[in-house]
Amino acid sequence: MKRIIDGYHRLLTWLMVATVAILIVPVTLQIISRYTALIPSWIWTEELSRFLFIWMVMLGAMIGIREHSHFEVDLWPELGPKPAAVLRIVSDLCVLVFALVFVWWGIQFVRFGWDQLSELAELPMPWIFVAWPLAGITWVLFLGESFAQSWRLLRA
């Protein structure tokens, strides 16, 4: 199972890199078209950059959960391994509640946009909206892995 989760994490990381790399193109076109007459002002670049930004943020949040790289306040920095594992479980439970909210309301969000198309590129909006429930499901998966690691520390 660890190999599958590691592979999924690597896939998310590469998707994040690709999203950022692709995002550079429409943003650069927007900037150049705004200040020069070399290329026409393309409206679709704003929409594409917005959608790529949504996916970039969600992919980053998914990766951040796996790597425990989200903002944390260390109230007790000198805890031993077992108390730190208990604190990690409590923290992960709080994030799990948030992840389940993302799954539930993300599914509602996808249903809401099921028949919608984006205004300019006419992309199906569920491809954009699915980022929310996918992030929630991924968080649940990565939190399960974190719970297992913390539980092993407690039992050792």
Explain how this protein is built.
- The chain is mostly helical and 156 residues long.
- The chain has one domain (2-155).
- It has helices spanning 2-35, 44-67, 81-112, 126-129, 131-155.
- Helix 3 (81-112) runs antiparallel to helix 5.
- The chain is elongated.
- The chain starts with a helix and ends with a helix.
Query: Helix and strand succession?
Result: HHHHH
Radius of gyration over all CA atoms, rounded: 20 Å
Number of domains: 1
The main β sheet shows up as: none
Overall pLDDT confidence: 91
**How many angstroms separate the termini?**
21 Å
Number of helices: 5
Parts with pLDDT < 50 across at least 5 consecutive residues: none
The class by helix and strand makeup works out as mainly alpha
Strand proportion: under 5%
Strand runs, count: 0
Tell me, briefly, the overall form: elongated
Share of helix among residues? over 70%
Task: Break the fold down into its secondary structure elements and pairings.
Elements: H1 2-35, H2 44-67, H3 81-112, H4 126-129, H5 131-155
Helix pairs in contact: 1-2, 2-5, 3-5
